[in-house]
């Protein structure tokens, strides 16, 4: 069930990203989004130089994600690339650049250094709205938000609910969401960094019947055309809202993968095409054991794995953000 959009997993630097792009018979002009996962050991000048070489004059939105590291690797940074034939449609320039490909709107990371936690969160959402405005889209076009906040803000995290409710609204389709704790700020003084994805066409929410989402500002997944955008899934029972399998990475992963499969099944039998897996430092030693289990659930999915400082629930060892693709007959 092929799609025109290709999600390449994060690899150790821009030279490897260029090789992966070429292996999939894609050109730099096909790039619609770049994600840089950077550790405290990164050399920003080297990253910028590699980016310039890969893009080769192509203007594309870049998301920069601070992380603690990568399981089993000492890479100072990794790069993930999304490509679409011809690069879709370009809107804006420099820090305001967007690309629209197959109905999906790719944006750069946003952050601010002004204000307290909730105020910064609101500012980030307003900035995303500003970026979308040339497309005549609003925040109701969002399909996924991922916020990166420091471990020290964990107690304050519920305060982001108010700006989300006020700005995202309480309509029938709220975006998917993930919240990751990283202690390296995107900029000094930034307590929140926000990544967002939007879509140009009709959206519909996917929920297998989990009532806990009735009171939340996000959904288990959102469908836009053939694309399915999942929220971040941790080992949280969707009925009791309690964390399960504390201290057992393999059991948590099996629970998470099962829930993703249930949601994507409810979406209309979507194939999982990519997984972004955030693991805590305590999970790293056991992480290689997940490979066989993951292959059973999601054969063929590309996987990007990063180490974060923690997750919003202290019991969580892993959070997984999936993307899927519907068969053509199921597209809406």
Account of the protein in words:
This protein is of the alpha+beta class and 332 residues long. 22% of the residues lie in helices and 28% in strands. It has 6 helices and 18 strands. Strand 9, helix 4 and strand 10 form a beta-alpha-beta unit. Helix 5 runs parallel beside helix 6. It starts with 5 loop residues before the first strand and ends in a 7-residue tail after the last strand.
- Global mean pLDDT: 94
Helix percentage? 10-25%
Strand content: 25-35%
Q: Spans of 5+ residues with little confidence (pLDDT < 50)?
A: none
Order of helices and strands: EHEHEEEEEEHEHEEEEEHEHEEE
**Net shape:** globular
What is the radius of gyration computed over CA atoms, rounded to a whole number of angstroms? 18 Å
| Terminal CA distance | 16 Å
Number of helices: 6
Largest sheet: 8 strands, mixed
Total beta-strand segments: 18
Structural class per helix/strand content? Answer: alpha+beta
Structure in a nutshell:
This protein has 332 residues and is α+β, with helices and mostly antiparallel strands.
Topology overview:
Elements: E1 6-7, H1 14-23, E2 31-38, H2 44-55, E3 62-66, E4 77-83, E5 89-91, E6 98-101, E7 104-106, E8 110-111, H3 117-132, E9 142-149, H4 161-168, E10 176-181, E11 192-199, E12 203-206, E13 221-224, E14 227-230, H5 249-266, E15 271-279, H6 290-297, E16 302-307, E17 310-311, E18 318-325
Parallel strand pairs: 2-3, 9-10, 15-16
Antiparallel strand pairs: 1-4, 2-4, 5-6, 6-7, 7-11, 8-11, 9-11, 10-17, 12-13, 13-14, 14-18, 15-18
């Amino acid at each position: 069930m092929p799609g025109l959009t290709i999600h390449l997993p994060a690899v150790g630097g821009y030279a490897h990203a260029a090789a992966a792009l070429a292996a999939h018979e894609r050109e730099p002009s096909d790039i619609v989004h770049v994600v840089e996962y950077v550790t405290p050991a990164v050399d920003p000048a080297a990253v910028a130089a590699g980016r310039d070489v890969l893009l080769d004059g192509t203007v594309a939105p870049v998301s920069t994600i601070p992380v603690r590291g990568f399981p089993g690797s000492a890479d100072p940074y990794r790069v993930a690339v999304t490509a679409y034939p011809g690069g879709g449609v370009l809107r804006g320039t420099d820090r305001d650049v967007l690309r629209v490909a197959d109905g999906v709107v790719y944006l750069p990371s946003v952050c601010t250094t002004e204000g307290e936690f909730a105020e910064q969160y609101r500012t980030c959402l307003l900035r995303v709205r500003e970026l979308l405005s040339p497309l005549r889209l609003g925040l109701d076009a969002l399909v996924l938000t991922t916020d990166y906040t420091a471990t020290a803000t964990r107690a304050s995290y519920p305060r982001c609910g108010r700006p989300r409710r006020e700005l995202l609204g309480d309509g029938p389709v709220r975006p998917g969401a993930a919240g990751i704790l990283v202690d390296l700020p995107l900029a000094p003084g930034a307590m929140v960094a926000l990544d967002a994805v939007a879509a140009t066409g009709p959206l519909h929410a996917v929920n297998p019947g989990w009532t806990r989402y009735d009171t939340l500002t996000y959904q288990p997944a959102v469908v836009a055309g053939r694309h399915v955008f999942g929220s971040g899934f941790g080992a949280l029972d969707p009925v009791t809202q309690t964390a399960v399998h504390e201290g057992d990475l393999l059991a948590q992963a099996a629970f998470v993968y099962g829930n993703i499969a249930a949601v994507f099944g409810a979406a209309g039998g979507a194939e999982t095409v990519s997984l972004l897996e955030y693991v805590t430092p305590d999970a790293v030693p056991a992480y290689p054991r997940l490979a066989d289990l993951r292959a059973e659930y999601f054969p063929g999915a590309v996987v990007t794995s990063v180490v974060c400082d923690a997750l919003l629930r202290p019991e969580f060892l892993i959070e997984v953000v999936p993307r899927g693709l519907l068969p053509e007959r199921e597209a809406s």
